[in-house]
Amino acid sequence: MRDGKGAIGESLLKWYDTDARVMPWRVSPQDRASGVRPDPYRIWLSEVMLQQTTVAAVRDYFRRFTARWPDVEALAAAEDGAVMAEWAGLGYYARARNLLKCARVVAQEMDGQFPQTAAELQKLPGIGPYTAGAIAAIAYDEPVAVVDGNVERVVSRLFAVQTPLPAAKPELTDLTAQITPQSRPGDFAQAMMDLGATICTPRNPACAICPLIADCDAQSQGIAADLPRKLAKKPKPTRLGFAYVAMNAAGDVLLERRPEKGLLGGMLGFPGSEWSEAPTPAPPLRSDWQEADAEVRHTFTHFHLILRVFVTRTEGANFTPGGDFAPGDLPTLMRKVWDAAQSADWPQPE
DNA sequence: GATACGTGGCC
DNA sequence: TGGCCAAGTAT
């Protein structure tokens, strides 16, 4: 243990048992005391959903997934399109594709049992260093360092690490390992993340009520809010595109399944042009297309997108039956396209 | 190491 | 309003 930091585990777990939030996927301290064990399936599902995603955004998705697919065998047996539709709106859709791959490996090749070590877990699709550590620590009590963005921030402040991210990652992982206790490593990991989410926040950290204030080098140096240092990000370019919403007399709409790889991979969407500085219009069929008044603006991780939306009524296409389509099955960008189409001045049928 | 990959909330 | 940020992973 690092000098002067010996009490961190104890202080943090005391705070966790009394003050921390209880999530739908978490076993409460009371239940844990009664011998209740975390369900690896639910831990895995929640951790994948929580990758780069806030607790508030995950809650309802987690509830719907576990209600519809209560165990890994049920999820493994689901249709691809059903899982993608249930994930729609949560973002980073490779997670949903890898979720299904992983469920099928576990169900078909591992007798429905997840591996019990971080090293083995990390071999599965969609499970990287963070998620492997989180599952191993929470579900199987492996005393492994669990390092997400919250922990990076907490640890960089505790030890006043000045190295900018992402170069500081190995150092922060090593420091986290030094303060991870042999006892209750899963609760320790969740406590660190809860602390980062609620007290040791990026801006205006609430140091006055922090259970680790006596252990924090950055606080004593008055630089807590300045850490962790981060490299400057590149500016986002703006791309343009065209999107097309065709509907027949029965109210069916024309949708396509996007390719597995790439942006919004595997999701349903409206046909359209490529997205670039100067896109070429690409209507999916000949018809009387009318442009909607409102453009769609959407920002992805690495670029801004402005879409011009065109609508038409026609019978000449392979439409998705209206009963099989709900806007909620679409990624957010395509929901915006749908919304813009509703406010358009639709042409009369040909 | 750098880049691709969503979305919504916050200030 | 626009950039920052969130329980990261794959390539």
TrEMBL record:
Classification via SMART domains: ENDO3c
Top-level enzyme category: hydrolase
InterPro entries per the UniProt record, alphabetical: A/G_AdeGlyc_MutY, DNA_glycosylase, Endonuclease-III-like_CS2, Endonuclease3_FeS-loop_motif, Endouclease-III_FeS-bd_BS, HhH-GPD_domain, HhH_base_excis_C, HhH_motif
Pfam families membership: EndIII_4Fe-2S, HHH, HhH-GPD, NUDIX_4
Molecular functions (GO terms): purine-specific mismatch base pair DNA N-glycosylase activity
Cofactors demanded by this protein: [4Fe-4S] cluster
Biological function: Adenine glycosylase active on G-A mispairs. MutY also corrects error-prone DNA synthesis past GO lesions which are due to the oxidatively damaged form of guanine: 7,8-dihydro-8-oxoguanine (8-oxo-dGTP).
NCBIfam families for this protein: mutY
Protein's name according to its UniProt entry: Adenine DNA glycosylase
